[in-house]
Model the fold of this input.
Amino acid sequence: MQFPAVSAVRFSNMMDCGKAMILLQMSGQAWRPEWHPDPCKAPLGRLPALRTPDGIVPDSTLILRWLILMSADLDALTVQLGERDWLFGDGPSAADACTLPVPSMIDHLPVQTPLRANLRARESLMGYVARGRERLYAGLPLAL
Done:
């Protein structure tokens, strides 16, 4: 997690960093701050930014989305998917295109985590990930 030194940022950046720290604390995830005096050198030219095993998540709103999708939303995703192959209807939709990269990324975490174990224990979600990789990622220049 990257946070600026208090004297080096605008008040709005401090509020966003504070929000991100509170969200991380509430999530129960292990984290530690990295203090950086120049937010212009951060992703998107501002802080906060969360360092994850798969790269940097910039912006407190994206950090919130990342945290939510990390745990509680696996339950919601499982319920929404139900017995279907796709979230809404018989074929993939924009919702699938926006949602699928998150569980796919979790499945590819380079280390075993409780989140990855949680995902992999859900047969319906792993089937969804496999279908999505096969159908939605086909032809994309990705190493999956």
